[in-house]
Design brief:
Chain A has 242 residues and is of the alpha+beta class. Chain A has eight helices and eleven strands. Helices cover 42% and strands 20% of the residues of chain A. In chain A, a hairpin with a 2-residue loop joins strand 10 and strand 11. Chain A binds a DNA duplex (30 and 30 nucleotides) through helix 7.
DNA sequence: CGCAACGTTGAAAATCGTCAATCGACGTGG
DNA sequence: CCACGTCGATTGACGATTTTCAACGTTGCG
């Protein structure tokens, strides 16, 4: 009886994993730790060479500016790898804060490298995930740079949907979403007040309703069209491995 | 008599390269090609598995939106690697356009992998460069999300300075910069008109002057302070290899 | 109960974009 | 050589978007 971790589900979408590979992933989940909401798991500028796999709960990676404002770079949902600079070992310049109580598996960088040497297919799958994360940061940049506030919010909800579906935590009708409007604001480069107004507009236009920690798509097709959401950047089906 | 390529200079800043490693880099520069300004080198959505090393001239990588607007993700200067998805082989979702006539070295992905297998230190150095590129995209996101227009422009010039100095193309007093104000606008998420206003303000405040394809720092310290420029994200001195 | 955090709304102000016009530099065809 | 068109830079006026400030409601929790 195996309980499949979100990471295993996610990587399984990229490559059909063997029993042995699943076991290796399971072993990663041994050093289990929990962190409480709001208390930083990693501070900006802190030097760390081990990573965490988010098993339960949500977190954000962010950067603080000298004037006190905050820009959230990434929302982390179950199955995501946190705190690993994709390839080389170097100082993390991002802070990571849980937005709910979270459960993570701590992964020592050296262990990971060893596992990868023995399971190159696993290494490829993890690189695929990292490459996908990268594409998301780029799309995030595009969104902030060239979409108006309301479309930005709409696009954000659609991207999250795609990510959550991949780990079985969402459907095309909606998902659980423990983010506050302040967090949305810091992620989207807006003020919390304006995020509120955008949410109202999207609700009144019958597109999405975000209320009480849940996102409900009232008109999914309409929302996709409104936000000009093109999931191509997420669909790195790549060289499917069997 | 060896003419050192910008890429070799850049990687040399990370790891002291052996003669053999320099030779491998030289071999990369054999398949030399040129592209003219304005004609895309890579179209958005085009599938390619080989990369280019920019040897001379400038380019931009960008993403086009359905409404016709453009967001530039990255400015590419000599020594930069273009069109390589850092790790896995997948469809490029970014277009690349030369902003001047450029000279590049085409690198076949397979050749590169072979070289890396034989020269792990080179592989590490290239990964370092990729990681640095990544950090730049993140900082770019932060800039667009949380800095006002004028600071954004100022920060942009300072980042470019650091990048150009690394390949010997700039000093703390200024550098050659063939970008138009329209390109700056597409990179910074602004309109060209507003970029013009920001440039005037920076000039009148005695901080930087951008005119006639050249950036001149009138008050470098003042500009750093104004833009809240912290080059930490560029200083991945990492595990220096000897 | 009272506090704290989040959500909601309105009004005013700042920032930034759009439109329109002008100017100079440059290259091309006549 | 000159006329012309194009591209980029520049500026002003106006308008749209977004922020800020302020106030109030709601909810959950010690």
């Amino acid at each position: 009886m195996r309980s499949i971790s979100p990471l295993a589900i996610k990587l399984g979408a990229f490559a059909a994993l063997s029993c042995n590979e699943l076991n290796v992933l399971d072993r990663l989940h041994q050093r289990r730790r929990t962190f409480v909401s709001g208390k930083d798991l990693l501070h900006q500028g802190q030097s760390r060479s081990n990573a965490y796999v988010l098993a339960k709960g949500w977190a954000v990676s962010y950067k603080l500016l000298a004037d006190g404002s905050r820009q959230i770079v990434n929302i982390k949902v179950p199955g995501d790898i946190m705190g690993m600079r994709s390839n080389s070992l170097r100082v993390s310049d991002l802070g990571i804060e849980p937005v709910t109580d979270i459960e993570v598996s701590e992964v020592l960088a050296l262990d990971l490298l060893e596992d990868f040497r023995e399971n190159p297919r696993l290494a490829t799958a993890v690189q695929w995930a990292a490459s996908r994360d990268n594409a998301m940061v780029v799309e995030h940049l595009v969104s902030i740079g060239r979409r108006d506030a309301t479309r930005r919010v709409a696009h954000f909800f659609l991207e999250l949907e795609a990510r959550l579906r991949l780990v079985g935590l969402g459907t095309s009708s909606g998902y659980f979403c423990p983010l506050t409007q302040y967090i949305l604001a810091d992620a989207l480069g807006l003020s919390a007040v304006h995020v509120n107004r955008c949410l109202r507009k999207l609700r009144q236009d019958g597109l999405v309703t975000f209320r009480g920690e849940s996102v409900v798509f009232d008109d999914h097709d309409g929302l996709v069209e409104f936000a000009q959401f093109d999931p191509a950047y997420l669909d790195h089906t790549g060289p499917l491995l069997h």
